Amino acid sequence: MQLRVRIDGQTYTVEIEDLQSRPVQVRVDGEQLEVWPEASPAAAAPAVAAAPAVADTPAVADTPAVADTPAVADTPAVADTPAVADTPAVADTPSNKRPAPSLPGTVPAPLPGDIVQVAVKAGDPVAAGQLLCTIESMKMNNPIRSPYAGTVERVHVAAGEHVHHGQPLLQLRRLDAPPPAAGG
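RESULT FIELD:
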């Protein structure tokens, strides 16, 4: 489904793949994003059906580019879209699966984006709140900071790499953690 959305005078092209998959894969002006919808008491009625049609919105209806797109009410409701299990191509793609459970000390990516800076290396001591790396997403730099004092055991990413939500960025060992147990 493709929509043109106007917010504060700026028009965005929004492409939504499968509304049933988790996370929902969307593109906003060509940038791929993952969206994790939250369940709410109003989930019994599809949110798409409750939204006003785009043509009913005066600020949007006056824009020729938006007038050419179908109204939200004309798009299939969530209940009309096939379930993920009925769509093998979507169900088999790794980006639609939650990341595997991580090891203790894993610092996961809180959002998808591109690594623009890695400020530490394996073996570096870090203080709580110290900058570990920076992720650029939607033209904004997002600092990723250490949740506690410790030592960097492993760095899983490098500058220039694209990361997905939940992907491990670094492995930390707490400063107050007991040393690893000797085999025996």
